[in-house]
Design goal:
Radius of gyration of chain A: 21 Å
Number of strands of chain A: 2
Distance between the termini of chain A: 46 Å
Helix content of chain A: over 70%
CATH architecture of the largest domain in chain D: Orthogonal Bundle
Distance between the termini of chain D: 49 Å
Order of helices and strands of chain D: HEHEEEEEEEEEEHHEEHH
Largest interface: B-D, 105 and 92 residues
CATH class of chain A: Mainly Alpha
CATH class of the largest domain in chain D: Mainly Alpha
Strand content of chain D: 15-25%
Largest sheet of chain A: 2 strands, antiparallel
Chains: A mainly alpha (228), B mainly alpha (542), C mainly alpha (110), D alpha+beta (357)
CATH superfamily of the largest domain in chain D: Cytochrome c-like domain
Oligomer: heterotetramer
Helix content of chain D: 25-40%
Chain lengths: 228, 542, 110, 357
């Protein structure tokens, strides 16, 4: 269903493929980069995994307190953000494709679109944080839980996790936007083409991973207790 | 001794990685794995000195039952010692120095897969170390290296956040080192260098890399949560809002137990190389030794709960952790038996690296066997949190890893610097370290079963004699570590030229010049023989 | 130099499925299924994540080694979650004597 | 038996003064023996090979292929020995994990940096624990601040005291004497000062000590609890003989309680502790949240223990059927099967709030 081989018109020079001295072939370099990136993503999985473990333990302990937070979670903003991130993942995948096909203008277009979506996500997240602050739901700084006072203690655990997990996720988004800016500059300088697109693909993997984290955060933080 | 073939000093030293460029920029911006290894060697030596100095100081405090220093001082000293020795010395010790230097050479590559990430990892290490030093100069941290909540998150009046930040950053340095090794071993092997031809040192560091990559991020996040809790005064480990402090221990030991194997596996790899070389014999049961490294790496992740038998952890979970902990002892035992068997019908010489290997095998055996006491549920109850634990893990970490590190340094020093060190002095200091070590830590086993808790700045008077013995031992140990520092520095200028292969060892690293050139090999080597090829197989044991 | 180049159509299809699944999971969360709400939410999340990994990230077209690494990462996450959860799940279980030797007297003199 | 090792000034082995200590020592000696034999074997092997095959005697090594049979032997044999260790250790551990029913209960509160001991008869001590010989003793332990660990080397017992819930520890002393008590979980500046003594007394001495008014007794633990109950104004709402604005406490202890959300919990130590410190965590059916002030930080763990003892001492005065109260009943019969009942019977290892599943 897909073209698996790029037609190569000439044997690419080491300069074109940015082949570093210690690699024998561009394939070896690309394989190493791919394996390295996936290894890094595994560490990221376990990094977030620590917080997911905390979430699982306390949700098991305090299901009602966790469910009671549903009235404070903005499903519309959360859902919109999920859609925005999914769109950014699509444009990221299209960026990689454009780079592979040496379509520089497409690459720049899709990178910009990805960055726009990423920025929209962060802006919406900022509004949500602002709402939480106004509603006094920030554990340790201003926390009131008068409507469901019986959960005033345990619900703080969920809100703490909410800020820790979404905050860490947002931090990854910011880093991702930085990396995309770097790609954009490079793309503008015509660095990427069919024989050299590893940075686009690697940063793409990172961006998709950040998307996956959100795919789990959305139901776990926004959708609990919506059934009551 | 017998086999050192000194070359006659030449008038002009050939171009090598050390003299190819000069000036501080050529070091701070280098991407040569060998230069980065040297940078690491210098930095971890400094950190080892700081951590060791703290240890000598608090051993002096323990000379009298009342304690010579204030409790605040003592608590900061042992915390400093633990944090520095674990995160800034033991974890990077062999991987970041010897393995960084040797893995590309041993697999026949010009460099690690990601040279710039390798340099980044050193910078991260330095930044982490600077955070730790900042913490010390602000007044130190008094939580112990384990940072248990809620003491660290709420009650401690010391500089927890900088210390945690330092460990966090150094953790990423460790992740990047591990990542680099994994990718290098997978993708950078020379033609013919199959997995079954890899030196065991590479196998053990590959297994270490897996642990670093899979475990360290969990440490990073649990320390981040502690720091957040300290800033917000509330958090998920806070019992006041229904949090469970034991959850922190789960997350902490999910990394920190495997980390114990980050600290010992590379040492095991070094011992395999040394024992083989100075017995002039292939390693007995190569496949089993290689496989046991992988088994240790995997099993190490399912035993963390044996640190929590008396915390109120579920007794059922404890039983599972107990049997799994016994199981992880099996691959370690396999290694010890195989090293011993390697010497059988060998041609053994007592060069300095081999003396360290003897020390390692003996002390690691004791350290490993006393570990069984802690895996054993009922017996862990009285010895948990006492000096028995302290003695046990120092037998493994110092008796094992530091011995291996010293052995490896003495083994590959001629390769790294091109110079030999004085044999007699090095043998004397190896003996001093062995004696000093045992005098320091053996009394602690007795103290532990007597009931002396760890992290006590004062103790009942009847424990004094054993504590004095231990302190006396620690000063001997300190002398033992200073001597090598002196003769290594001396040898840089004055040591005899070592030549390509002073030990007559097998292995790719001994076939290139000492010190190696920047790209290690003139042409990519083609490997067509097993590791440790000291001759064709002549005998098969039953 | 060879590489897999994805076609636009499957990428867009995956994108559409992800959007639809997001809608479904939000809608289902409003229906009271008791304990099953979280199960359904997680199944949908795992499906979405798999789609992203499989197509967007191209796990489908990578080497066996990369696939192995991905699986290993998930297994390790599972180890951490499951063993930790086992402690919390079984902490309150009570028993009489040892499970395997009911006759042993507890606390008797030795 | 091991007293010969107890040198007067410089012991090398701890006193053995409890039933557990004797059992654990046997296991300890088994492991020490295995360690000694294995270490001797390895040392002997290394030294023997090193000299026998030294290069001066054996200038040329004989290359040997490894042996799977040998490898399996030295993997499986040690593992079998380890299985014995595992079984023995786990068996003893389980036997010692749950206190016997007839154990005498003493309450311990860990606080930076002291151990506060409370006896059922109201005696209170700091860093001193008196127990009669031959009597199983169960300690119910709470922490006011950080994690502590209660450790008596002579008894070979230890358990962490984790803030937020009750932990238990038990032992049966076998030998009168004065033994060390240590904190073994690092708890801050004066961790090394969080030590004390355990006095094991003969029955007669113990009775004499008890009647001697030791520990500055001001009434039994339950009486002290009643004082707390009045001092903190509990008595204004929680009436004892009629239904007040708050649930009646008489006969409450260890009875099932129906909660506002339809679940039923057992009113054990952990539940009562939580209901005092964080009253809104579980609301009894028929009552409003927020009615009772939060006593977290107002009452110490010691005070809570006293109040629990007081509630425990309140036997039902009148049969429930004669109460004729208009208020909804708080103490109900256990619901039938299928109802969402939550076990919290093992108070010792129940995190305070965990009954809510």
């Amino acid at each position: 269903m897909a073209e698996t081989v790029v037609p190569v018109t000439h044997e690419p020079t080491p300069e074109e493929t940015h082949l570093r001295h210690h690699f024998a072939t561009p394939e070896q370099q690309m394989d190493a980069a791919t394996l390295g990136m996936w290894t890094f993503l595994i560490t990221e999985v376990l990094f977030f995994g620590g917080m997911f473990a905390g979430y699982a333990v306390y949700r098991g302990m305090y299901p009602d307190a966790f469910a009671s937070t549903s009235r404070y979670m903005n499903l519309v903003l959360g859902g919109t953000n999920t859609a925005v991130l999914i769109c950014s993942s699509l444009t990221m995948a299209l960026s990689v494709r454009a780079a592979q096909l040496s379509k520089r203008r497409d690459l720049i277009l899709f990178l910009i679109l990805t960055m726009i979506f990423g920025t929209i996500f962060l802006v919406i997240k900022g509004f949500e944080y602002h709402d939480k602050w106004v509603e006094q739901l920030v554990p340790g700084f201003n926390f009131r839980y008068d409507e469901a006072i019986q959960y005033a203690h345990n619900a703080q655990i969920l809100f703490f996790l909410y800020f820790a997990m979404t905050g860490m996720h947002a931090l990854h988004m910011v880093v991702g936007l930085g990396l995309l800016t770097f790609l954009l500059v490079q793309a503008n300088r015509r660095v990427f083409h069919a024989n050299y697109f590893a940075p686009v693909e690697m940063i793409g993997l990172y961006w998709h991973f950040v998307d996956i984290v959100w795919i789990f955060l959305f139901p776990l933080l926004y959708l609990i207790g919506q059934n009551r | 001794m017998a086999t050192i073939a000194h070359e006659t000093p030449r008038t002009a030293t050939p171009v090598n990685y050390l003299n190819v460029e000069h000036g501080w920029k050529s070091w701070l911006f280098t991407t040569d794995h060998k230069r980065i290894a040297v940078l690491y060697l210098v930095s971890i030596t400094i950190m080892f000195a700081v951590g060791g100095f703290a240890a000598v100081l608090f051993r002096i405090n323990l000379l009298t039952p009342e304690g010579l220093f204030s409790p605040e001082m003592y608590n900061r000293l042992f915390s400093l010692h633990g944090i520095i020795m674990v995160f800034f010395f033991l974890v990077p010790s062999i991987p970041a120095t010897l393995a960084n230097f040797l893995i590309p050479i041993m697999v026949g590559a010009k460099d690690l897969a990601f040279p710039r990430i390798n340099l980044l990892s050193w910078y991260l290490y330095v930044i982490g170390a600077l955070f730790a030093m900042y913490c010390v100069f602000r007044g130190g941290v008094d939580t112990g290296w384990t940072f248990y909540a809620p003491y660290s998150s709420t009650y401690s009046n010391s500089y927890v956040v900088p210390a945690v930040a330092g460990v966090f950053v150094a953790g990423f340095s460790s992740i990047l080192t591990g990542l680099n090794f994994i990718v290098t071993v997978h993708k950078m092997r020379a033609p013919g260098m199959t997995w079954s031809r890899l030196p065991l040192f590479v196998w053990s560091n590959y297994a270490t890399g897996l642990i670093q990559v899979l475990g360290t991020p969990v440490l990073a996040i649990s320390l981040t949560l502690i720091a957040l809790e300290r800033v917000a005064h509330v958090g998920i480990f806070d019992p006041n809002i229904g949090g469970d402090p034991i959850l922190f221990q789960h997350l902490f030991w999910f990394y920190s137990h495997p980390a114990v194997y980050i600290m010992i596996l590379p040492g095991m790899g070094v011992i395999s190389e040394i024992v083989s070389c100075f017995s002039r014999k292939r390693v007995f049961g190569y496949n089993f030794v290689a496989f046991s490294s992988m088994a240790i790496a995997v099993l190490s992740f399912v035993v963390w709960g044996h640190h929590m038998f008396v915390t109120g952890q579920s007794v059922y979970t404890s039983v599972a952790f107990s049997i799994l902990s016994f199981m992880v002892a099996v691959p370690s035992a396999i290694k010890v038996f195989n090293w011993t068997a390697t010497m059988y019908k060998g041609s053994v010489s007592f060069d300095t690296p081999m003396l360290y290997a003897f020390g390692f095998i003996g002390l690691f055996t004791i350290g490993g066997l006393t570990g069984l006491f802690l895996a054993c549920l009922a017996l862990d109850v009285p010895v948990h949190g006492t000096y028995f634990i302290v003695a046990h893990f120092h037998y493994v970490m110092v008796g094992g890893m530091v011995m291996a590190y010293m052995g490896g340094l003495h083994f590959w020093w001629p390769k790294m610097t091109g110079r030999m060190y004085p044999q007699v002095w090095s043998q004397i200091s190896a003996a001093i370290i062995f004696v000093g070590f045992n005098l320091t830590f053996f009394p602690q086993f007795i103290l532990g079963y007597l009931g002396m808790p760890r992290r006590y700045h004062a103790y009942p008077p009847e424990f004094q004699m054993l504590n004095v013995l231990s302190t006396a031992g620690s000063s001997i140990l300190a002398v033992g570590y200073v001597i090598p520092l002196i003769y290594f520095l001396w040898s840089l200028k004055n040591g005899p030229i070592a030549g390509k292969n002073p030990w007559g060892a097998a292995g790719l690293e001994w076939q290139i010049q000492s010190p190696p050139t920047t790209y290690n090999f003139d042409d990519t080597p083609v490997v067509n023989e097993e590791a440790y090829n000291y001759g064709p197989v002549e005998e098969v044991v039953g | 130099m060879t590489a897999h180049i994805p076609k636009v159509r499957p990428l867009v299809l995956v994108w559409a499925s992800l959007i639809v699944l997001t809608g479904i999971t939000s809608a289902v969360s409003k229906i009271d299924l008791g304990e099953w709400n979280v199960v359904v939410a997680l199944i949908i999340a795992v499906t979405k994540a798999s789609l992203v990994a499989w197509i967007f990230m191209g796990v489908r077209y990578t080497t066996t080694l990369t696939k192995l690494f991905v699986v290993a990462g998930l297994v390790w996450l599972g180890i951490m979650l499951l063993i930790t959860a086992s402690d919390y799940k079984s902490r309150n279980w009570t028993y009489q004597g040892q499970p395997w030797s009911q006759t042993k007297t507890v606390g008797g003199s030795h | 038996m091991w007293d010969s090792l107890l040198l007067a000034d410089m012991p090398l082995f701890p006193p053995t003064a409890s039933v557990q200590a004797h059992q654990i020592d046997l296991l300890y000696f088994f492991l020490v023996a295995v360690t000694a034999v294995m270490t001797a074997l390895i040392f002997a092997g290394v030294v023997f090979f090193a000299f026998k095959y030294h290069r001066t005697r054996n200038p040329r090594a004989t290359q040997i292929e490894g042996s799977t049979k040998l490898e399996l032997t030295w993997s499986i044999l040690p593992f079998l020995v380890m299985l014995v260790m595992f079984w023995w250790g786990a068996d003893l551990f389980f036997a010692n994990a749950q206190p016997p029913k007839d154990a005498m209960e003493i309450f311990v509160t860990g606080k930076q940096w002291m151990w506060k001991i409370q006896y059922p008869d109201g005696g209170r001590e700091i860093n001193e624990l008196h127990v009669p010989v031959g009597q199983p003793v169960k300690l119910t332990m709470a922490s006011e601040d950080v994690i502590h660990s209660f450790y008596i080397p002579a008894f070979r017992v230890k358990h962490d005291v984790v803030p937020g819930h009750y932990d238990t520890l038990w032992f049966t002393p076998t030998k009168p004497g004065r033994y060390h008590l240590f904190c073994t979980e690092y708890c801050g500046t004066l961790h090394a000062g969080m030590i004390g003594w355990v006095d094991v007394l003969s029955r007669r001495d113990y009775d004499a000590w008890q009647s001697g008014g030791a520990g500055g007794r001001q009434g039994t633990l339950a009486e002290l609890g009643q004082q707390q109950y009045e001092q903190h104004g509990c008595s204004t709402c929680h009436l004892l003989d009629q239904q007040g604005r708050c649930p009646n406490l008489r006969g409450l202890y260890k009875k099932p309680v129906l909660l506002a959300d339809g679940r039923t919990v057992i009113a054990d130590d952990a539940y009562i502790r939580e209901s005092i410190l964080d009253p809104n965590a579980k609301i009894v059916a028929g009552f409003e949240p927020g009615l009772m002030p939060v006593f977290k930080g107002q009452i110490s763990e010691e005070g809570v223990i006293q109040i629990i003892a007081f509630i425990k001492s309140l036997a039902p005065a009148v049969p429930a059927s004669q109460q004729g109260s208009q208020q909804p009943p708080i103490v109900l019969a256990p619901p039938g099967p299928g109802a969402a009942s939550t076990s919290s019977s093992n108070a010792s290892r129940t995190p305070v709030n965990s009954q809510r599943q």
